[in-house]
Design goal:
The complex is a heterodimer of chains A (about 260) and B (about 190). With about 260 residues, chain A is an alpha+beta fold. Chain A is about 35% helix and about 20% strand. Chain A contains seven helices and eight strands, in the order αααααααββββββββ. In chain A, strand 1 and strand 2 form a beta hairpin. Chain B folds into two domains: about 100 residues, RNA polymerase sigma factor, region 2, helix turn helix motif (Rna Polymerase Sigma Factor, Chain: A); about 60 residues, Arc Repressor Mutant, subunit A (Orthogonal Bundle). Classes of the chains: A alpha+beta (about 260), B mainly alpha (about 190).
Chain lengths: ~260, ~190
């Protein structure tokens, strides 16, 4: 049968071919017929162009800010930008440094916006959650002295993690307030976000509901903490998350 | 809210893609600003689960960065090209995970963005997409849903029938009539 003589049928087949509902043998036969037949080729191409525009018709939804941070981290763009902003011969110029800092802040603002969003919820959660762990008497020699705290939350502003940092004893304690469903080959990783430079890993999170680690990092260097989903063992990129960032929150001094 | 002095157009996106091809990180940022909500909406429509859609959006922008040099303005509109990357990544993702988990339901459908662009999104759309949007409007809701599900999720007639919980014959006729209407509306070849 010459499809040319049945333009209605040709159009219907080309439309179903583009939509993807023409499958199997029928699809292969049509593609076979199209070889060396410009009329059929044109019909297929026209309908492909028509139907493929359907991807543009879905209305937008604002993605969470963490996605851009993850893209930037995966591609190492903070470094890219730093290099672009600093011509080698003027590397020490204050201008270059300022641009680099500003650009990092641009992205830091995302984390912050997210971190600040749930101020009230955060304060309430903090007051309730801290009670069991706060030292009963401040200043007892050897007792924990929590100098910094952070309540991290997810995008629905649910408090998910409480971090207390005893800088006098270089001990950070992580309390899980929610469970995140992980596959067996995944782990959560905690990050400190300095006011300039790339995120610094504060370790892959343990499975326990609550754990402490010794850290040499200074808490005052990290105004914001964040948690990303990574392969078990941690992010393959030492300079930032590769998986989605799921929690973030401000790290604030207690005094 | 006042409208921006000049709305970005597909030409804006083409210019940005050219800069991204030269590894201009600021251009990628600008491109993300302009297109991420559109592309996230698409990923969410295909995948339903937000965390999957976020992963796919991230993967897609990494691919846009890597393959921007392969973009040819003469072959496809910039939004179509980027959205096709998102669709392909999303379909890959669906194949990797257990599809049963993402079964379509009307309840889910209610939570998702409706089909059809908002007025704010039209300036970046390709001419093809604008025409298609007008014509999709003329389909019955059932036809529109079946046609869009078949394409966006790359589903066969029987998969669409299972998703919408209607008989196979019904879906075949919705899609056939839907495509006939599109053909009439979009004009002859």
């Amino acid at each position: 049968m010459k499809l040319h003589n049945h333009p209605e049928l040709l159009e219907r087949l080309a439309a179903e071919h583009a939509l993807g509902t023409l499958r199997g043998g029928a699809r292969r036969r049509l593609e076979h017929l199209a070889r060396g037949d410009t009329v059929i080729q044109r019909a297929l191409a026209t309908w492909r162009t028509r139907i493929e525009a359907m991807v543009e018709l879905v209305p937008g939804q604002t993605p969470p800010e963490s996605v851009w941070l993850a893209i930037e981290a995966q591609l190492g763009l903070t470094l890219h930008r730093a290099r672009a902003a600093q011509p080698p011969r003027r590397a020490a110029e204050p201008d270059g440094v300022r641009i680099r800092v500003e650009r990092w802040f641009e992205s830091l603002n995302f984390w912050r916006g997210w971190a600040i969003a749930a101020t009230l919820a955060t304060m309430l959660a903090l007051a309730v959650a801290l009670r069991p762990w706060l030292p009963s008497s401040v200043g007892t020699p050897g007792a924990a002295q929590i100098g910094y705290v952070a309540v991290l939350h997810d995008q629905s502003s649910q408090s998910t993690l409480l971090v207390t940092w005893d800088d006098a004893h270089s001990t950070m304690t992580v309390h899980k307030l929610a469970n995140y469903p992980l596959r067996g080959d995944q782990a959560l990783q905690l990050w400190g976000l300095p006011s300039q430079g790339h995120p610094v890993s504060l370790g892959v999170m343990k499975a326990d509901a609550s754990y402490s680690v010794q850290l040499t990092e200074r808490p005052q260097n990290y105004p914001v903490l964040a948690v990303s989903v990574e392969p078990s063992g941690g992010s393959p990129n030492p300079d930032g998350p590769t998986g989605p960032v799921i929690y973030s929150g401000k790290l604030v001094p207690t005094t | 809210m006042t409208a921006p002095p000049s709305d970005p157009t597909p030409a804006t996106l083409i210019g940005l893609l050219e800069r991204v091809a030269r590894e201009d990180a600021d251009a990628l940022r600008a491109l993300y600003e302009l297109t991420s909500s559109k592309l996230f909406g698409l990923a969410l429509r295909i995948l339903v689960k937000r965390e999957w859609a976020e992963e796919v959006l991230q993967e897609s922008f990494v691919n846009i960065w890597r393959f921007a040099a392969d973009y040819r303005a003469g072959l496809s509109a910039p939004m179509t090209w980027m959205a096709a990357i998102v669709r392909n990544r999303a379909l890959d993702h669906l194949r990797r995970v257990n599809v049963v988990e993402t079964e379509w339901s009307e309840a889910l459908d209610d939570q998702l963005p409706a089909f059809g662009p908002g007025p704010a999104e039209i300036s970046l759309m390709s001419e093809q997409a604008r025409q298609l949007a007008l014509c999709m409007e003329r389909l019955d809701p059932n036809q529109r849903q079946a046609v869009s599900l078949a394409y966006l999720r790359d589903q066969s007639h029987s998969e669409v029938a299972a998703s919408l919980r209607v008989p196979l014959g019904t879906v075949k006729s919705w899609i056939r009539r839907g495509l006939d209407k599109l053909k009439t509306c979009l004009g002859g070849l």
